[in-house]
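Appendix B. Chain record.
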Amino acid sequence: MKLVNEDSLTDMQNDFSMVYYSISVVSVGWNNIPLQFPFTWDGESDLLIEICFSKQFNNSKDILVEVSDAGFKANAFGDGQGSDNSTVGCDLNFAGNSNLRPNMKFTLEPTFVRVGSLQNDGLRNAGAMANLDGDSFPELILGNFSGGVRYFKGEEYRFPNISIVENDLNLEMKMYPNPAKGFFTLEWSDVLDDELDLNVYNINGQLVISKEVANGEQISTDHLSTGLYVVQIVSQGKFAASEKLVIIND
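Structure tokens predicted for this chain:
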């Protein structure tokens, strides 16, 4: 298979991706052929498929394939005259083209952008995925060795909006080291409070630290993953200052 942008097929092409390579016994009616090697369609490009008949056991019999008229040159075929049991079908020379395209059906499975990983959720996990509620997003049922199951509802992934309120107090804040590993220190000046409220958010807008801190206090980051965070301090309910913090814990 390969992705192309073609109005018609007038010649043989190269550089296909191998998706199936095996001896297949065909029968009358629809033949189901699961791909041995996954192929990703981008949802927009035309799909070009090369089917090679090679090493046919009994080459005295024709393999009849039902076709439909596509209304344009949708089929390029090779010259199989004189083929024998050692012929490699994909190496046949171009013999012509036609509007008659073999009838095919495709079963598509969605691909996903990885937004996280599940490392351990019981012994001998087994997952099954399908659109269970008809909303076009797949759900995940995860079973384990103990007989329990967990249900994960599929939803559209949206990049979160992270906003910071306008600085009300214009507090001068020092935060070090940055990048931090294990801990960071906060210092401030020009404020009467000896203790301020500290909020730390990850890049998904989730609050991961919320506590009162003293001037010059060290804040532990041992429980946080490597990444970018927003550190915010608040004095008497008013936003005071914020800084970006990089944590390196791996």
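Further analysis of this model is presented in Appendix C.
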